[in-house]
Amino acid sequence: MAAILMKQEEKQQQQQKNQQQQQNQKDQKQNEQKGDSQSQSNQSQDKSNKDKQDQKKNDQKKDEQSQAQQAKEEKEKQEKEQQAQQAQAQQGQPNEKEQEENEKQYAAGEMTPQQAQQLLDAQKGDEKLIPPQSKGKPQDSSRPIRDW
Question: What is the pLDDT of residues 104-116, one digit of tens each?
Answer without folding.
Answer: 666 667 787 888 8
